[in-house]
Amino acid sequence: MNGNEEEETIFEIGAVVPRRNVKEEDEADCVQVLIDEFRKVGLIAERVVGVTDEFIKLAAPLETLGRAATELQMRKRTHIGIDLPFQWEEVEAFVRQPAGSLFSWCERFRCYCHLIYGIANKSRSAVTLKFDGKIFHWEVEEYLLQKLESEKIVKQVFPLHDERKRKKLLKSWALHWWSFTYQPIDEIYLYYGPKIAIYFAFLGKYTRWMLFPAAFGLTLQLVDFGSLQLFMLPAFFIVVILWAVMFSQFWKRTNSAILARWPISYAVADDPGYKIPSEEGSSLQPPMELIKEWEADKAKGKKAFQRYEWFGPLMRFRNDAIIILSIFCLQLPFELAYAHLYEVIGSDVVKFALTAVYLITIQYFTRLGGKVSVKLIKYENNENTEKRADSLVYKVFGLYFMQSYIGIFYHALLHRNILTLRQVLIQRLIVSEVLENLLENSIPYLKYSYKKYRVRNKKKSEKGASKGKIQFTSRVEKEYLKPSYSASIGEELEDGLFDDFLELALQFGTIMMFACAFPLAFTFAALNNLMEIRTDALKLLVMYRRPVPRPAATIGAWLNIFQFLIVMSICTNCAFLVWLYDQEGKWRIEPGLAAILVMEHVLLLIKFGFSRFVPEEPAWVRVNRTKNTTHAQDMCSKQLLRTISGGEKAFGVVRKLE
Amino acid sequence: MNGNEEEETIFEIGAVVPRRNVKEEDEADCVQVLIDEFRKVGLIAERVVGVTDEFIKLAAPLETLGRAATELQMRKRTHIGIDLPFQWEEVEAFVRQPAGSLFSWCERFRCYCHLIYGIANKSRSAVTLKFDGKIFHWEVEEYLLQKLESEKIVKQVFPLHDERKRKKLLKSWALHWWSFTYQPIDEIYLYYGPKIAIYFAFLGKYTRWMLFPAAFGLTLQLVDFGSLQLFMLPAFFIVVILWAVMFSQFWKRTNSAILARWPISYAVADDPGYKIPSEEGSSLQPPMELIKEWEADKAKGKKAFQRYEWFGPLMRFRNDAIIILSIFCLQLPFELAYAHLYEVIGSDVVKFALTAVYLITIQYFTRLGGKVSVKLIKYENNENTEKRADSLVYKVFGLYFMQSYIGIFYHALLHRNILTLRQVLIQRLIVSEVLENLLENSIPYLKYSYKKYRVRNKKKSEKGASKGKIQFTSRVEKEYLKPSYSASIGEELEDGLFDDFLELALQFGTIMMFACAFPLAFTFAALNNLMEIRTDALKLLVMYRRPVPRPAATIGAWLNIFQFLIVMSICTNCAFLVWLYDQEGKWRIEPGLAAILVMEHVLLLIKFGFSRFVPEEPAWVRVNRTKNTTHAQDMCSKQLLRTISGGEKAFGVVRKLE
């Protein structure tokens, strides 16, 4: 049992305060007080002076974290397979992380937040604090950090990169180009938490699976099948749909196999681990008053629960209806107008101008939609932040869905020409993939450079034009200047993964829904994703600050969106095939059309039936889980039973015995 | 904490031995030895002499059952929400049944089986047993009851009715006509076990929900909507599909709400509770050798598990393919031939003869199909008996599906006449419902009477024609003569519920798939089901022996069949509507047809999307479950943790700490 890793001093949290002119050690200097308080709760604090700001780096010995976890009553997996509140004294009973450490990065972060935001004035009188000559009072029972944040003294608190691990990951992951889709998922989990690790596991598997339809698509493009050519498109369509159905089911299995390796608490989704305590008092917490009512009167409580349960979905339904209606009434005409104008206009210059206007408007529109969605979601009583984030994902995806595909649909219906449709698809794919990849990697770098430049400029203007270039020597300052990994829409609910998943989902939609029109798209997508794995890794390791860890254990709403896109693509491809074989445009049911209708129904049946035949959890995961649990439970079943009946007696739980 | 119920002597198991001529008390008389052995293991045994047979009635005090459960290491729910092996010393730790008794009827039955089938010769030498002058040896370590059964001395062992509770149920349930769909589900659970209780809960909810479309169908029949008439059928269709989709989802909620009241062990489906121990050594047990291999080498074990996991579905797929192919190649032509001949033949007499021949053949065919299915299922490695039973249900339902609907489909396609189709449907409904109800209630009575008659006859011929009528005075003898509640097909896997569910599913299929053709069918079905509730109850309480309890906690495969029928009925009704509005038979896509296609897709979407919006478990059930569990766990978390870390140390589990 070595705690090596935790015993080394690794600074994991940084706080930023402005650099002051006065440098003498003042007892009442609020930064000094803050550092003293940090040390009092058991943290290791180090002060670093940067170019324009000062930084406090924080580390925590294992015991400090353990005590914080005990205070938080953090539920952790025990060896008998149930989750119990953590207790530092009984640390032996809890399952450790794959690398041997006791707490995962998520849990550590939560403990840090609890420790640093939990510092209150425990003395009898207010403490006088000074900052750059300004004087203010730290009242009794007031939280210090919140106070300093509201006084704009502490600018930010953010997680720090662990340089040793970051470099290791950079070598074994981001720069490991020749290993194609392989990624060290476990190390990513240990460093970034489960949500980001699951994203990369998904991206890897998706890319690996995509090689097959990519090869098929390429073959279709290159080889002339002669008289069979007519049947190749439907064959490709069927293969691709089956591929997608199997992929989405097998991904679930992979996901549960991955989770089997990480001892993530069952209540992981309910765990507000990445929230800063001050935010917790929101109105969206589980309804304690309902539970109380339930305890007081079962029948009444049941009704209250039913009301509560139905109210949530109803609100969500209303909100979804609002979003869908506004998409149909506002966005659809706009998109159609753009698509129509684009098709009608002959001059390339006007087309270009139109596209520019369109792009600016749509940016604005999407941002507006995102804001409206976030506002609406506040009135839904989703059970936890993950659910709220999912709700946002569904709503925002609606906007992007229209944006991305209406133009293509319109083009397909208007021109009914497979060649120009292919052109449009190629354009879209190149624009969306190559350009977006470039943008998403260059923008954070530009932001970082701009910030550096601004800081240097400020410094220079303060000090006068002296000493030439100013160097950023401390690592923590460099990290502070890096942009944070946040979503383009709804920052309060999502992190940067939102944009990465959105890109994947829109790509999946494009290649699947128009699979018959352009089989080569799969090859493009596969190549792009092979790139994406490494560039996303680089982005996370080099461009951004270390993200706040989130405890999600699945890809959540995105899998449902993938499934929805599969169903859509069954319908659109069938329509496309009907149109292809019905050149006269008379829409008559002939054997061909009937055959396509039958095929559509069979594919839909397979789509919805397949999940029944392939279980979501591999047998070995299930057996391993239950075996471990029952084994441990049986080992100590005698003591357990004595504890239970003892507990029952001691705490006087009244059971229904009559 | 009263154990009243268990302290009264209620005889729950009966064993039958032939009545012997010798009546003296012989020490070596095998029946006497059996009774002595029963008493030795702590059972209360009573001997009853009947007309031609002798009966041993068995009861068990609570402690005897508790000791048996401890020996069986029966997993039971504890107050902290996890299942642990039962221990009589720590009885306080376990959750009790709603009526206050410790063991459910399922568990009691399992204990009885363990006790009576576990009696072995523990002495050093074989014991000599006599029966009616015949002498044989009870060898060392041989099981007594198996021996006597193989010697045909013990004819049967069967569960006995509890007269007091039976009469109470008869009053509050079977003869409670005016309460329509209300049934005392909890009492049914306590008396018959979960599987039968769930069936009746389902039947009740189904009937209650059916009143709505029944009223709508009746309105459609009676009221003339004038110019709106054209739109009433599609409207009815949409309403009925929505109704069915909602019903199937809300049933899942009801099911979990019901289960929340009963402390059924989580592993209930894996619990071979209703199996007699001698059967247990079958090859279909969970693969112990795989688990061992897994423990020896994780990587190899994982592969072995994957092989095992894929082998099962593959075999099932192969079997399903065999069944489906044979249905299509053998049954379909046969059914079509019958349907065709029936339509073509003019003479009523020939029609009647044809139907008679058909009915006999189809009986034979179904029985053959059932046997083949049971044989095939033996080669699948389904995880447990429930899964195997489900697999049988799917296969056999295929046979019945063809049998029941091909004729109607054929008629619809051939004649395209809505009036004759309605006639056929009315015929089918009346035949299937009224006649089947009559048959299923009269056949067991006739069987019972015939058995009684045969026994009397035998007795008379033995004694000569004396004393006039022989009375069956003992209750246990009467019960012995009653038929057992068994399935018409695949008796080794299913009980009588198979036939009851089959009837419901075929009714559901008929009314749903031809909803547009004959809306009044719902009214017929609702009336029939109101009857069915009480007649089924009467059948179980009066006609049959008490069935062996089975631990199934859901309606299993039948719900999937209902869902399948909903999907089928979306397609068939759409086809029907197309046909109705396309009188010329040209199958052209016009706005009408396109509208129907769109409607079909929307309905299919709703069908598959609805389950995402309505959770399967009501919020109050979930909160209650987790709250209770976490509450109890937290109460004794300190002791639990100590136990766990103690257990870890004491038993030396090697954990991955590095």
UniProtKB/TrEMBL annotation, chains A, B:
One matching Pfam family, short form? Anoctamin
Q: Which domain of life is it from?
A: Eukaryota
List the subcellular locations: Membrane
Q: Where is the Anoctamin transmembrane domain?
A: 188-627
Q: How does it sit in the membrane?
A: Multi-pass membrane protein
Main subcellular location of this protein, as a coarse class: membrane
TM region(s), chain numbering: 196-218, 230-251, 321-340, 352-370, 391-413, 504-531, 552-581, 593-610
Q: Which GO terms describe its cellular component?
A: membrane
According to the UniProt entry, its GO molecular function terms are: chloride channel activity
Keywords of this entry: Membrane, Transmembrane, Transmembrane helix
Task: Indicate yes or no for the key word Transmembrane helix.
Answer: yes
Name it: Anoctamin
Species per Swiss-Prot/TrEMBL record:
Quillaja saponaria (Soap bark tree)
> What lineage does the source organism belong to?
Eukaryota, Viridiplantae, Streptophyta, Embryophyta, Tracheophyta
